[in-house]
Amino acid sequence: MTAKSIRIIGVPIDLGQNQRGVDMGPSAIRYAGLSSRLKSLGYEIHDGGNLYVPVRDSLSDEQGGGFLRAVQQVCQAAYEAAEEAIRAGEIPLFLGGDHSLSIGTIGGVTSQQPVGVIWIDAHGDANTPETSPSGNLHGMPLATLLGEGYPELVNIGRPGSKVSAKDVVLIGIRDLDGKERQWLKDKQVKVYTMRDLDERGLGGVTREALEYLGHHDHIHVSVDMDALDPSIAPGVGTPSAGGLSCREAQLLMEIIADTGKLASADIVEINPILDHQNRTAEMAVGLAASLFGKSII
Questions:
Q1: Bridge partners of 191?
Q2: Nearest Cα to Cα of residue 244 among 205, 294, 289, 213
Q3: Nearest C-alpha neighbor of 18 from the set 120, 95, 133, 110
Q4: Which residues are designated catalytic?
Q5: Burial class of residue 234 in the structure, from the number of CB atoms within 10 Å of its CB (0-12 exposed, 13-18 middle, 19+ buried)
Q6: Residue 241 included in any domain
Q7: Cα angle 20, 288, 114; round to 5
Q8: How far is CA 69 from the centre of its chain?
Q9: Which residues of 170-198 are buried (b: 16+ CB within 10 A; e: fewer)?
Q10: Per-residue burial over 106-120, b = 16 or more CB atoms within 10 Å of its CB, e = otherwise
Q11: Can you give the CATH number for the domain in which 122 is found?
């Protein structure tokens, strides 16, 4: 049997937010043994290195969107890298970097056909420039992908929205801004909060989410490591108490893997400066292994 091929692509972007250090996330995940863990599962691994991201100190802080032009350029490169990997029959695995990179990655993997998106995060990332309290671009990628936000980002790769509300499920949500909450309701985006998980159980919620996306043959999983509780994943820039446990996160990955529909993924927001002995990156490697088929028996 021919091994499936994974293309690892680092996107060391730290331009979508203010907390320094997240640009070192790709290196931390690689150092934690990502390639060897995935090879042990029978995959061919091709590490494409890192996409070019300008050093933020070399850029002027633009008005009305921070480093908007630089983020646009990086996300365009991510879009093209995703397209190239899919055309080559590989599974692109993007390592972040902040979550703004998903504007490019999800745009690229949906360029040929619709893809269901499972967005695992403590936050909704569904602000627009008009609703965002901070103006940080890493809080806007989902809204951008649904077609609202800065035109420079909405139109990356191809004009307009890259997914619709029926293509997306959010899991693990527990920290939303007021206008962002209303935006998600108005757009009828499927959101499973931590209360949903507490009351109904992770397994039931995940299976329901996959059934909701059952019209798709391919799934993209975007994992923000702040979805996990900070007690087990401290190396993130925007920690939020009350998150997924280690076992819940592993089960979520395992159930998705069981579908055989995984086509691409992001692992984002690891900040080694805030971490303890690379624990968050090691957790990310364990989740990646489960997502790509590691099982207990």
A1: 170
A2: 205
A3: 133
A4: 99, 121, 123, 125, 138, 224, 226, 269
A5: middle
A6: yes
A7: 95
A8: 21
A9: bbbbbbbbeebeebbeebebbbbbbebbe
A10: bbbbbbeeebbbbbb
A11: 3.40.800.10
Rounded average pLDDT over 254-271: 98
Residue type, 214: G
Query: What is the side-by-side strand order in the sheet with 5-11?
Result: 44-50, 5-11, 91-96, 262-268, 219-224, 116-120, 168-173, 190-193
pLDDT number for residue 2: 42
If you average pLDDT over residues 238-246, what whole number do you get?
97
The residue written with tokens 């507490």 in the block is 198
* Helices 246-258 and 202-212, packing angle to 10 deg: 30
CA distance 150 to 129: 7
* pLDDT tops 60 at residue 65: no
Total residues belonging to the chain: 297
Higher pLDDT, 3 or 228: 228
The CA angle 261-264-265, to the nearest 5 degrees, is: 115
pTM (predicted TM-score): 0.96
Query: Per-residue DSSP letters for 92-128?
Result: EEEEES-GGGHHHHHHHHTSSS--EEEEE-SB-----
Quickly tell me which residue has 């909704």 as its tokens.
124
Structural domain that includes position 53: 5-291
Q: Read off the pLDDT of residues 100-122 as tens digits, 9 standing for 90 and up.
A: 999 999 999 999 999 999 999 99
Domain count, the chain: 1
Would you call the peptide bond into 157 cis, given omega within 30 degrees of 0 as the criterion? no
For residue 70, being part of any structural domain is answered with yes
Band (64; pLDDT cuts 50, 70, 90): very low
Structure tokens at 42: 């029978």
